[in-house]
Every structure is written in C-alpha cells, then in structure tokens.
C-alpha cells in the first residue's frame, strides 16, 4: 500500500514532499474495497457494471463481425467457470496457461479463471517451443487452454485443452448444469502471471494479485470521472459510449489491463486477431471506434499514410499511447493532421499491472512528451542511479514507485524480485525519468538502453523521435554499436519510405543539425523492418546482434 499522503510539506502543484523526498499522486483518491474483503478482480469488475447491464456489445470480432452482448458474456463466463471447476477440477491458486490470438474466447477464459480464483497466465501465441518450456518452468501451470494452431508447440507433459474443440465446448455445457460454488479468494492472492516482454533479457513471470488489478480498474474509473466532470464544466456534450479497438495482444499487460477496464466500464471491445495497420483503419471506420490503444509507431504510420486520410476516422476521439515514449515532434505533427483526436499518453509496466501514470483531460494531453500524473494511490521517487541520492522536480534519475498496483514478485526468481522491489515496497522501474513542477512525469529512456559514448549518456528514444520526423523515414531504431575508442556509437537502423533514395550521410546530417555533438548518429543501416515486441517495443538486443554480425565492411 502507498503511504498516507502527508498532511503538510507537500507542494500542491508538483506533489513533491521535501521532507520525505517523495512525489505523491495529485489525483483525487479512488475508493478501494477493504483489504480484508474477499474479492476477485473479475467479481470487482462485474460489481461496478451498470444495472441494468449495458445494451451494447461487450465484445466484437473485427474480422467476422460476431458480437457478444453483456448478458451473453456474463452467462458464458459463469458457464465456463462451472466447467473449469467441475470437469477440469481447477481450484484457487491453480495456474492455467492461456495461449491464443486475441479472439472472443480469450476474455471469457480470463474472466472465468479469475472468478474461481485460478491464475491466468496468458502467453504469446507466436512464441517458440523452447520459450513455452521456459514459461512453464516458471509458472508451473496445471493445464493449458490453447488455440488449435499453437497447441502442438506446448510441452508434451502439460495437459492441453484446445480452444474450440469438443472437449472445450463440453466445459461450458457442464458448467451450465453445475455452476462453480462461491469461493472466498483473498485480494492478495495471485490473479495472473504475466510474462515480461524480455526486451532486455530473458522473459520473467510477474505475479499480479487481484488487489493489483482492482486498483488498476479503480484508477481508470477515477480518471473517467475526472474527464467527464471537466467536460461538463466546460459545457461540452457527454462523450458517446466507448468502443475500443484492440490491435494490441491480450496476453500483454497493456491489452490485459485495457480489457479489464473495458468490461468494468461497460464498454465495447473490438478484437483483432493480429495487428494489421490497414485492417485497423477499416475496423475504426466500420465499428465507429472511439478509442485506439497503440504504441508510438502507429502514430508515425498514421502521419505518413495516405490510406489514413482516405478512411472515415471521424468516430475516433482518443488514442491511448503506451509501450514506449512518445516524442513531442511526432505528437505535434499528428495533432496538426488529426486535430480532433486527443492523444492520451500513459505509462506502466508489467510489474505495476500496467498502470503508473496517464494524462487526463485536454490540457494534460497537450503536454506532449509527458505520460501524465501519477495514478491514484501511488507515490514515487526519482533516484540518482550512481549515487542513490533522491532527487526533486526537474532532476533526472531512475523512477521508483510504490502502491497497490505493484506486483507480488517474479515467480520462481527471488533474486530478481529482491533486486526490483525493496523491503519497503519500492519498485525500481529501470526507467530514466523526471517530474516537472506541475507533477507531470517524463520518460527519457530505459537506463539499460542508454548509449555510453565517451562517457556521455545518449538516450536512443530521443534520436528515434528525430529520425521519425524525417519525411523519407517510415520507421527507425537506434542502438549502441561497440567501439574500441568511444565505448559505444549511436547507430541507426532505418526503414526508408518506398521509392526514397535517402543515404547514410543524409541521415547523419539530419540528426547532427538537431543534437549536441556527442549525440550524433555515427553509423546507419537500412532495413525492411524494425523488430518489435507485440506491444510495439523495439527489440534492441536483436538489432545489436544483427549489427555486430553484419561487420564493419557490410554496413
């Protein structure tokens, strides 16, 4: 739990308390159920649904247009929960590996598992057999529920029920006859085991509690109340019901958290089996999508796409940005082309159940480059990674956060847990950040990804924002290239716009005009695509390996 907000000594503008060297949330406190009250995240989400149930679809399959109403969704969850309990014999604390693209079955499975106290462990359907073996060794699931096309890649010694098979369908049939009994699940019990993206090392398994997810839902609900109040005070029309397009995978914390939010708030979730930019534009047009969660490269693609200008995107009111820092240049260019779409910037980690900060309302959303203010219940510190000194507003250091969204720990890795969460509950994010005088948080870059050039620290994200502003560059990534004299050189991987003849020297000159000499890009490679995680994070390790293997002569 976060420490109580100090009664005095806190700057009401920045949220910084000089006495404790701690930043506190500036958001109004959001009500949470008492710790002692048994509750699952699924039960909490359903408890705040409007009564009667919303008359709009809960889920829509973007490819097939199949939709599921709220009454049908809740009935499907209850039926499957009964079958999971009576047929598979699942009990509270049992871990279940869920491996599938984002299809309508997945939300039903996730909510059914959580409702009986079983632990959801969603995994990437594109993973290799070796990666599944590693995940299974960490989370120790008792059974897997998997899409037909991925079931064969799972370890042979793990029982697997194929989604859509007769065996799977029989679970719901049995559950309809014998529903699961009421279970007393502690909020502190594990609700999900989420696998970290593994962009800086091997995948780890973060144990997230029901309390963590309840706090996330509560914070999102709180933000909506704030936004609606501000809109009413400004004399604006009430917002239409939210229809969210899910181009992001439900196994990733961003998608998992957004799905919980969508259901709890009675919204409509439009699911995409896999991300396809043109298909996403057409889905926005067809289903009158109002909210699009996306990583910054999607904005860059929209800016440079003729198709985006041809599609009817008039329903789209908000784009929720996550997964990586959003550069001011990209945000400003996007706002100039799409002035009626508000960019909601946010920041979270797998280890914080997907929630740390976000912008709320038009004024905050125009603070381009910021990921907003700390969510309710949270407090933060900015710590100098070299000296351990705790810093104040405007000073850069590693962000530490504490509060009810912080994970229980890494499953099967006590050493990594101890290195990440200290004895007082502070989670060390590994991100270089600062708060400004208004309590707005800015992410500079991952500490582990800073390029060390002749003793200087160069943030790759800063150079990537500049590169992506070039009209002939479709996508870009910057990595550290080993160098005997400098230590590391900033090297850019560039995806040129079709038909462009952009040269290496032109790329380097373009950046050099806008940065200090030590930040200049000193090597360039042209590629057809930038490798990214499902959440849109650049897989820099792959690019470093590629750069080294290419060798000097081939660059």
UniProtKB/TrEMBL annotation:
InterPro entries (UniProt xref): AMP-bd_C (IPR025110), AMP-bd_C_sf (IPR045851), AMP-binding_CS (IPR020845), AMP-dep_synth/lig_dom (IPR000873), ANL_N_sf (IPR042099)
Claim: ATP-binding is one of the keywords in the record: yes
Enzyme Commission identifier(s): 6.2.1.12
Ranges of residues in domain AMP-dependent synthetase/ligase: 54-410
GO process terms (BP): phenylpropanoid metabolic process
Family: Belongs to the ATP-dependent AMP-binding enzyme family.
Catalytic activity: (E)-4-coumaroyl-AMP + CoA = (E)-4-coumaroyl-CoA + AMP + H(+); (E)-4-coumarate + ATP + H(+) = (E)-4-coumaroyl-AMP + diphosphate; (E)-4-coumarate + ATP + CoA = (E)-4-coumaroyl-CoA + AMP + diphosphate
GO MF: 4-coumarate-CoA ligase activity; ATP binding; CoA-ligase activity; trans-cinnamate-CoA ligase activity
Cofactor: Mg(2+)
Protein's name according to its UniProt entry: 4-coumarate--CoA ligase
Domain AMP-binding enzyme C-terminal stretches: 462-537
Organism domain of life: Eukaryota
Enzyme class: ligase
Keywords, sorted A to Z: ATP-binding, Ligase, Magnesium, Nucleotide-binding
């Amino acid at each position: 739990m976060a420490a109580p907000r100090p009664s005095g000594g806190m700057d009401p503008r920045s949220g910084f308390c000089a006495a404790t060297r701690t930043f506190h949330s500036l958001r109004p406190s959001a009500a949470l159920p008492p710790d002692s009250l048994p509750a699952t995240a699924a039960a909490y989400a359903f408890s705040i649904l409007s009564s009667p149930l919303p008359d709009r679809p809960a889920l829509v399959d973007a490819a097939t247009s199949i939709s599921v109403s709220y009454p049908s969704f809740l009935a499907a969850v209850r039926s499957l929960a009964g079958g999971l309990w009576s047929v598979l014999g699942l009990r509270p604390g049992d871990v279940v590996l869920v491996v599938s693209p984002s299809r309508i079955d997945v939300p039903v499975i996730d909510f059914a598992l959580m409702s009986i106290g079983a632990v959801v462990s969603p995994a990437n359907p594109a993973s290799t057999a070796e990666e599944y073996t590693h995940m299974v060794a960490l989370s120790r699931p008792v059974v897997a529920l998997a899409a037909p096309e991925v079931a064969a890649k799972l370890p042979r010694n793990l029982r697997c029920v194929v989604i859509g098979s007769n065996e799977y369908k029989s679970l719901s049939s049995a559950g309809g006859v014998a529903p699961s009994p009421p279970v007393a699940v502690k909020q502190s019990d594990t609700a999900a085991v989420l696998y970290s993206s593994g962009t800086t090392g091997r995948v780890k398994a973060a144990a997230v509690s029901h309390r963590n997810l309840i706090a996330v839902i509560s914070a999102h609900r709180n933000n909506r109340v704030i936004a609606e109040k501000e809109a009413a005070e400004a004399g604006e029309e009430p917002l239409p019901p939210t229809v969210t397009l899910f181009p992001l995978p439900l196994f990733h914390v961003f998608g998992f958290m957004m799905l919980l939010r969508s259901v709890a708030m009675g919204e409509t979730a439009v699911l995409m089996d896999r991300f396809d930019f043109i298909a996403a534009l057409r889905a926005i047009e067809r289903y009158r999508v109002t909210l699009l969660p996306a990583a910054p490269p999607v904005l860059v693609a929209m800016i440079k796409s003729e198709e985006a200008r041809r599609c009817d995107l008039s329903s789209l009111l908000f784009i929720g940005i996550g997964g990586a820092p959003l550069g001011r240049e990209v945000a400003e260019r996007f706002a100039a082309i799409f002035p009626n779409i508000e960019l909601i910037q946010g920041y979270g980690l797998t280890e914080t159940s997907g929630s740390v900060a976000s912008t709320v309302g038009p004024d905050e959303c125009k603070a381009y480059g910021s990921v907003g203010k700390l969510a309710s219940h949270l407090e933060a510190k900015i710590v100098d990674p070299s000296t351990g000194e705790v810093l104040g507003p405007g000073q850069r250091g590693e962000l530490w956060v504490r509060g009810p969204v912080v994970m229980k720990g890494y499953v099967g890795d006590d050493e990594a847990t101890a290195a990440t969460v200290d004895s007082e509950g502070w989670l060390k994010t590994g991100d270089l950040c600062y708060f400004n005088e208004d309590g707005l948080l800015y992410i500079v870059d991952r500490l582990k990804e800073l390029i060390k050039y002749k003793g200087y620290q160069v943030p790759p994200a800063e150079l990537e924002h500049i590169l992506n502003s070039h009209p002939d560059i479709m996508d870009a990534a910057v990595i550290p290239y080993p160098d005997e004299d400098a230590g590391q050189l900033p090297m850019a991987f560039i995806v040129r716009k079709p038909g462009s003849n952009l040269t290496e020297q032109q790329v380097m000159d373009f950046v050099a005009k806008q940065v200090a000499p030590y930040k200049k890009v000193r090597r360039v490679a042209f590629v057809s695509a930038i490798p990214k995680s499902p959440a849109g994070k650049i897989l820099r390790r792959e690019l470093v390996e590629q750069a080294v293997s290419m060798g000097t002569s081939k660059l």
